Amino acid sequence: MHSTSILGFFGGLLLSLPTAYAGFSSSSSTNVAVYWGQNSYGQGTGSLAQQRLSYYCANSDFNIIPLAFLITIADPSLNFANAGNNCTAISGSNLFSCPQLEEDIATCQSTYGKTILLSVGGSTYTEGGFSTSAAAVSAATNIWSIFGPNTGANVPRPFGDSVIDGFDFDFESTVSNMPAFANQLRSLMTTSTASTGKQYLLTAAPQCPYPDSADNPMLAGTVSFDAIWVQFYNNYCGLNSYVSGTTTQNNFNFATWDNWAKTVSLNPNVKVFLGIPGNTGAAGSGYESGSTLASIIAYSKTFSSFGGVMIWDMSQVYANSGFLASVASDLGQAAATTTTGTVVKTTTTATTLSTVTTKSSTTTTTSSAVSTTTGTVNQWNQCGGEGWTGGTVCVAPYVCTYLSVWYSQCE
Ligand SMILES: *[C@@H]1O[C@H](CO)[C@@H](O)[C@H](O)[C@H]1NC(C)=O
């Protein structure tokens, strides 16, 4: 986040200029995204209950907030846990109006340089996508009219005149025709950027087993993503499988996702984030802290696609004192402060939160039974391809299967 956040900052000051990439920087490896909206730590009251969005935005240890979640798309509806209590129903729709969020999104963007995304899906999403690509395109157009710039059209506007910085996809069950949906959003965002200058992002949160079953149709070279944050938790390929002191990881598979970025992704400059739980109870497995987490972050940073850390979620990381600051420090971003004239703006972006409970709790055990025999490669992990120096023998009964000159995996 460095220069772009400064641009975003001044864009916010000079109201005539659009804020561009308020926080996320595609040239930085110290971005930190923290999900807000699910209150996954689970406190109903008190300081550890999820607070309104603006409560968190002064914290310079992170720069991206995906709002979780838009839980239905065809007939759009939102769920922000206890924050929904501060919203009121919009008649004629299943959406609610959230004046506090309208205010806080603007404050977080213009005062604190945060990138605010709307995350679509979540583990409770059950619509299964769309029956046709035409239905997907029309739904995307509708979602854009609701959450994109306010054109004065007669549509519900949960965030009023505030405009998010893009969309995040977090699907955890099979969804159909999602590339058409994502590409229509991308197209509408690009058109809008051409007239207003405001930049928009598309991101996704696949789970670490490669390829991600739910999001793969979008990740298979069909949709241009700016970043993906891989959920390295609740699975055999998560942080808990990281082996210190070796560049060839058997199960922890950041290398596989780096390879995806370079050889499969439609956008070869896509950033891959290390998605982590923000607290012990934030995920079924995969929570790491201290020197272990520092070592995993250092290892992940050796890959050129590395863009930073994603944490599930805000409530969990705020209940885990010191964790967010330690992530920021692990990323190697000392709290930088840029002084420009009389204006002081912190440009630090770190990583702090995390807890992943709601996102992936349904997929926790996917592959935990897979053997971790040293020297052999587990199901869905890379076992060959040009430049590959890791293991080439799959754990029984899997077979190393050629997918491209760049990539073979155990299936
Ligand atoms: C709900 O509104 C109250 C009163 O303004 C505020 O203190 C609280 O933080 C809000 N809660 C959430 C979760 O947004």
Verbal overview:
The chain is α/β, with parallel strands linked by helices and 411 residues long. It has two domains: 21-368, TIM Barrel, CATH 3.20.20.80; 371-411. Helix content is 25%, strand content 18%. It is built from eleven helices and 16 strands. The protein has helices at 2-13, 54-57, 99-110, 133-147, 178-196, 216-219, 254-263, 290-300, 314-318, 323-330, 357-360, and strands spanning 31-34, 64-72, 77-78, 88-89, 96-97, 115-121, 166-170, 201-204, 227-231, 271-277, 306-312, 337-340, 343-346, 382-384, 400-404, 407-410. The strands form four sheets. The protein has a nine-stranded mixed sheet. A three-stranded antiparallel sheet has the order 14-16-15, covered by helices on one side. Helix 4 packs parallel to helix 5 and helix 8 packs parallel to helix 10 (323-330). The chain is globular, with a radius of gyration of 20 Å. The chain binds 2-acetamido-2-deoxy-beta-D-glucopyranose. 2-acetamido-2-deoxy-beta-D-glucopyranose binds at residues 50-52, 82-83, 86, 100.
In summary, what is this structure?
Helix content is 25%, strand content 18%. The protein is built from 11 helices and 16 strands.
Oligomer: single chain
CATH class of the largest domain: Alpha Beta
N- to C-terminal distance:
39 Å
CATH topology of the largest domain: TIM Barrel
Strand order of the largest sheet: 1-11-10-9-8-7-6-2-3
H-E order: HEHEEEEHEHEHEHEHEHEHHEEHEEE
Query: Which stretches of 5+ consecutive residues score pLDDT under 50?
Result: 1-22, 334-374
- The percentage helix is 25-40%
Bound molecules: 2-acetamido-2-deoxy-beta-D-glucopyranose
Could you tell me the mean pLDDT?
Answer: 85
**Count of spatially separate domains:** 2
The CATH superfamily of the largest domain is identified as Glycosidases
Strand content bin: 15-25%
Outline: globular
Q: How many strand units?
A: 16
Number of DSSP helices? 11
Using only C-alpha atoms, the radius of gyration works out to 20 Å
The biggest sheet, with number of strands, parallel, antiparallel or mixed sense and barrel status, is: 9 strands, mixed
Structural class: alpha/beta
GO molecular function: cellulose binding; chitin binding; endochitinase activity
Signal peptide: 1-22
Pfam family, one: Glyco_hydro_18
Family: Belongs to the glycosyl hydrolase 18 family. Chitinase class III subfamily.
